[in-house]
Amino acid sequence: MKEVMIVTGAGQISMAIARRVGYGKKIVMGDKNIQNANAIAKTMNDAGYDVVPFEMDLSSRESILKMIEEAKKYGPITMMVNGAGVSPSQAPIETILHVDLYGTAVLLEEVGKVIEPGGVGVTISSQSGFRMKQLTPQEDEQLACTPTEELLNIDLLKVENIRDTLHAYQLAKRCNEKRVMAESVKWGEKKARINAIAPGIVVTPLAIDEFNGPRGDFYKNMFASCPAGRPGTADEIANVAELLMSDRGAFITGSTFLIDGGATASYYYGPLKPQQ
Ligand SMILES: NC(=O)c1ccc[n+]([C@@H]2O[C@H](COP(=O)([O-])OP(=O)(O)OC[C@H]3O[C@@H](n4cnc5c(N)ncnc54)[C@H](O)[C@@H]3O)[C@@H](O)[C@H]2O)c1
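Predict the joint structure of the above. Result:
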């Protein structure tokens, strides 16, 4: 038996984190697109990791539970990385809400029930959650604490109250931040920790779809005009994940770490500030 790391979303950010912290572990690499999971598993197995690809859909509780059952066959679950997601140019409002918002909430809840003492997880949210106007304290609490099966029924998340796919994505990522806070209390009861990382633009297939989508020029300007002056790489996200998932992060839980080259700072107080 080995310690097991559950990964959802066989994408670039997931792989970078799995390579950084997943050595010596059994890694169950889940993705809706099994070709992606197979490809990442092959790259990592060729580099000495122990990865098994698994077809799963983050938007389905049943699928999440099947993945957890599969993972338990290999040993105790000590790590979780949630890097599955769809972006505003990739999917309609309903899909973004089901995958990025509901699916993430269910995954945190279900893994939280089985995570070992000393276990640790990260979920990938986004700078987009920081770009939306402030919600009321009551709305934030609803995002944090509404039971998962009722989440998509709250007024804030009703499709008729959502402007477009970007707004849905922002709400989903804000919800991730709030869920991580609420779940960290439950994970803490099991002596486990859970945090979120909110990346800015990181070059991956998902970001490339955004560059080629209706907001492509907006995104290209965002990284060119942010303090870092460039997009990020998945390995830079793994730098933060490594801290959070190691003993050096032992006092960090329930937090969201913005790593965006300063784009959010510039959006509020610099050249990226929207013109009125
Ligand atoms: N790349 C960026 O610029 C950026 C910025 C902010 C946040 N993010 C977030 O990072 C996360 C990872 O994205 P990435 O950039 O590594 O993209 P990626 O395209 O490399 O990987 C995303 C993976 O998620 C999978 N996926 C999509 N829907 C799924 C579902 N329902 N169930 C299971 N798997 C599913 C895709 O098949 C894909 O393999 C996403 O949540 C994304 O919103 C990315």
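The two ends are 59 Å apart (CA to CA).
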